[in-house]
Amino acid sequence: MERFFRSLRLKSFFNTPRPLEFTYCNTGLGHSQLSLKKLGLRNKSTFVPPPGDNAVETYIKMVKKDIDLVKKNNIDTIPANVRYNMSRNEQQELRTLMNEPDIIFKPADKGGALVVMDRDQYIQEILNQLSNEEVYKKVSKDPLPEIQKRIAQIIDQGVEDGIIEKDTKKFLIKEHPMTPVLYTLPKIHKDPAHPPGRPIVAGTDSVFSPLATYLDRVLQPLVVNTRSYLKDNMQLLNQLQNITLPNTGVLLVSLDVGSLYTSISHEMGIQAASDSLLNTDHSGSEQSFLIDLLKIVLYENYFLFGDTYYMQRRAQPWGVMWRQLMPICTWQALRNSMYIQTFCFLHTVFSIVAT
Q: Taking the model in full, what pTM does it have?
């Protein structure tokens, strides 16, 4: 509730016209290529405006009073004038399902359906995926302290070398990170009875979150501005209309990548990102700094399932903010390494079209 009240006060505070305040600014100070200001990022503000708008403050007091009243009287009954969109029997069945320990609710991978699954079947499907030692590796203890130490070393060196500024350091280091947790979304469009799961790591507010956001902001423009990148199907149709092909000897090929995020090795992704950075104005030390951060996110990527920690040996599961970046960089590298002539080479994150 306090976050909600803060949001109200912020809107009121910044919507109120205020006299201009002039402060001295040294315009001679430049900014690093990798500074937060250059990248359009900023540290999260903790500013709380002082009470000001009487209407807002009155509303906040009334809400707090009603909440205190509910707590005091332990009100758990529903007012009589509330109308339900379910019958009494349906409500009872829903409560029974919600309290059933042997089932689990998950949204479907596609289609927007709600899937009710046997909990043991759901867990076993995940364990089957985690048993693939080419992709996952068990870790005996929480790797977070060592990861934090390595991140701090890289960032401190970046500040010392003048690559980044202190506010960027503050942005990149997460003081109280959450532990990334693995879950899956059932692919009922493939097998309704025994759906395979699409692995997703809930990594919001993890130690990797600011690094991923930062890398995405730096590297994403290098990817989407390439000639072969397609944003959507409409852009593909527009591109194909402008292509003239010979009458014979040409094949139209489309490729769809299976198990995309576990198919790209760390080495391939890092090499593709390194090649993309070579075509930028970033200095050699800046490129090395970015690649060091990328290696941390890839090689130290860990998550928790149940009470066991795992490292991922290849690529990134869904849930990482820059999940589009590695595939697209890799498709660019694939195009550059092809030995056959192509009149057209276009790709989205998941698919490739070539002639």
A: 0.70
Residue 195: DSSP 8-state = -
Residues 69 and 92 in one domain: no
Flag whether pLDDT at 24 surpasses 50: no
DSSP-derived 3-state class of residue 112:
coil
Q: How far apart are the first and last CA of the chain?
A: 57
Closest CA to 122 of 103, 108, 96: 103
pLDDT digits 0-9 by tens, 265-304:
778 778 878 877 887 888 899 999 999 998 998 899 899 9
- Rounded mean pLDDT of the chain? 79
Residues with Cβ < 8 Å from 294, sequence gap 6 or more? 215, 269, 270, 273
* 261, 231: one domain: yes
- Inter-CA distances, 98 with 16, 93, 118, Å: 46, 9, 13
Domain of residue 266, residue span: 88-354
In this structure, how many other beta carbons lie within 10 angstroms of the beta carbon of residue 220?
14
